[in-house]
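Input record, target 12 of the design panel.
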């Protein structure tokens, strides 16, 4: 995750992170890539993973991080229909 940056393309993300565990495309140009990652080598040894996401808007990274990041504990797929005011 440390090698990701806002504005990267999906292809760049996959080249850095590998194939996601799952994807969702709820519409309006939004795609969510989900990854299961171990935050430390100890966690990896015991098979402990946490869910991380990469949110793409119109093919570019808009946000990324652990589930619950970005001032929310909600699943980032829940409120994807953001309208300009």
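The sequence produced for target 12 reads:
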């Amino acid at each position: 995750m440390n090698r990701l940056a806002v504005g990267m393309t999906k292809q760049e993300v996959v080249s850095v992170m590998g194939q996601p565990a799952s994807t969702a495309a709820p519409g309006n140009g939004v795609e969510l890539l989900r990854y299961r990652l171990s935050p430390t080598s100890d966690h990896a040894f015991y098979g402990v993973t946490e869910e991380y996401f990469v949110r793409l808007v119109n093919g570019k990274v808009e946000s990324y991080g652990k589930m619950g990041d970005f001032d929310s504990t909600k699943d980032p797929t829940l409120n994807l229909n953001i309208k300009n005011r």
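Residues 78-85 have pLDDT under 50 and may be disordered.
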